[in-house]
Amino acid sequence: MTGKELVALLRNSYLDDVKLPYLWEDPELLWFLNEAEDEACRRANLIIDDSTSNDSGTAGTASTAGQQSLCVLTVRAYQAKYTLSEKILQIKRCQLSTMTAPLDGPVSYSELDEIMPCWMGTAGTILSNSYPCKFLNEPCNTITFVGAPSTNDTAYLVVSRLPLVKFTLDSSPEIGLKYHRQLCDWAAHLAFRKPDSDTLNLPLSKDYEAEFERNFGPLPTAKAERIMKTISQKQRMRARAFGS
């Protein structure tokens, strides 16, 4: 669905705002819908990317200054830490072009201290190594190789991320079509929080918020997001005993 179609659906089926002058203008409703797409991605990791080089990797943002790496990272000899795009929610996989298997990770500082006590030198810098074996994703928009590679390389990432660009009235959300209609729940939640006597309806706002949460799950706390960045894909897939 295009942004125009979603605005019309929101206005007609959720807000009952079909008579001029409108209580909510189109740009306002479009902003609410874009917020809904970001919110859905944060809750349900709807966009998995293994090919977009950087966060300017779409036609709508080509040649934008200040672009940051998404799925392709130039690695320099003896440099362990790199800044990535803030669009990244989780790093699910990282593999260097010179290696035949992905690195273990993301791991946490405490895990490294336990299994590799000498992973960081006494000067507080990552020790160099011919080939990194693990990586950290703390804080959220950095990646740190353990140990620091001794040669130049290229790292290929698989990430969960936010949409690269805001959709317009003439374009569509980046998430799958089957989720488009459900964005209206969050947009309606925001719309009914507008502080105006004709628009403010907190009970209805909470109802739409609850419906959105039923579809996409609760919003992770900052602490939960940080924990997820230190749980490797192997750990996420590990079988658990019944009831654990």
What structural category arises from helix and sheet content?
alpha+beta
Number of helices: 7
Radius of gyration: 22 Å
**Major sheet: size, sense and barrel closure?**
4 strands, antiparallel
User: Percent of residues in helical segments?
Assistant: 25-40%
Estimate the global geometry from the Cα principal axes: elongated
Element-by-element helix/strand order: HHEEEEEHEEEEEHHHH
| Amount of beta strand | 15-25%
Q: Which whole number gives the mean pLDDT? A: 87
Overall number of strands: 10
Rounded to the nearest angstrom, the distance between the terminal CA atoms is: 41 Å
Q: How many discrete domains?
A: 2
Contiguous runs where pLDDT drops below 50 for at least 5 residues: 59-63, 237-244
List keywords for this structure.
244 residues; 2 domains; four-stranded antiparallel sheet; four-stranded mixed sheet; 7 helices; 10 strands; elongated
